[in-house]
Amino acid sequence: MLVIGGGIAACTAALSAAETGARVRLLAHKKSTLRQASGLVDVLGYAGGDGPLSDPSAGLDALPEGHPYHVVGEDGVRAGLRIFDEAVGDAYRGGHTDSNALVMTHGGAVKPTARYPESVAPGLASSSGDMLLVGFAGLTDFDAPVAADHLTAAGVPFSARGVTVEFPKRFRADAKVTRFAKALDRDEEVDGGTVRSVVADTVAEKLDGESRVGFPAMLGDDHDEDVRAELSDRLGVPVFEVPTGPPSLLGLKLEDMLFDALDEAGVRISAGNPAVDFEAEDGRVETVIVDQKSRPTPYSADQVVLATGGLVGKGLDSDRESVTEPVFGCHVPHPEDRYDWSEPEAFGDHAFARFGVVPDAELRPTDEDGEPHFENLRAAGGVVGGADVAREKSASGVSLATGAVAGRLAGEEATR
Question: pTM value?
Answer without folding.
Answer: 0.95
